[in-house]
Amino acid sequence: MSYPKYDVLYPKVRQALSQERFEHVIRAGEYAVHLAELNDYDTEKARIGGFIHDYAKERSDKDFLNEIDKKKLDPDLKNWDSSIWHGIVGAEFIRDELRIDDEELLNAVRRHTTGDVQMTTLDKIVFMADFLELGRNFSDTDVARQVTDDSLDAGVAWQLQFSLSRLVRNHRAIYPKSLLAYNHWVGGK
Ligand SMILES: [Fe+2]
Ligand SMILES: [Fe+2]
User: Fold this and answer.
1) What confidence category does residue 94 fall into, taking pLDDT thresholds of 50, 70 and 90?
2) How far does residue 86's CA lie from ligand 2's centre (Å)?
């Protein structure tokens, strides 16, 4: 289980992303450090998790669909879109192209788009850093940041409540794993 240093990953992530998204992942890495400090977690590993989480976000649908076949991933994934794929399928590109085989990091990338019932500290840090990095500015950002500073678990529940509510309002489908995560973290099931 290993992963390259931040400085080695930096140019590879830079060339994979637009300027705007690159700035988002830098800030997500910084916010992950903040959450790691509050939760006694390895700050460098947290920074890398935040930095790589959207590595695959600008890949084409065709790339993702080919990868689902090539790696024999769950065929149901094909019923979804890049908002789900860039985490679950994106982890495959990260393993192969960024040479990261640390499953804890790969799982944090996989879970950042959906949440999950079982989440490690790193999963929660990356999930929340993506949502709360300092470029984010939705209503109640400050409330969400305070809730998450006080309790990472409460932050996960806050984000799931926020994001699923928005999907419902916009008549969007909810990925089953996100619904299970919501039932667990918000509904206590
Ligand atoms: Fe993402
Ligand atoms: Fe992101």
Assistant:
1) very high
2) 10
Centre of ligand 2 from the C-alpha of residue 100, in Å: 18
User: Model confidence over 146-169: pLDDT tens digits?
Assistant: 999 999 999 999 999 999 999 999
With contact defined as beta carbons under 8 Å apart, do 97 and 8 qualify? no
Quote the pTM value: 0.97
Q: CATH second-level architecture of 6-185?
A: Orthogonal Bundle (1.10)
Residues contacting 116, CB < 8 A, separation 6+: 123, 177, 180, 181
* Annotated domain spans of the chain: 6-185
Quickly tell me which residue has 């590595």 as its tokens.
55
Amino acid at 89: V
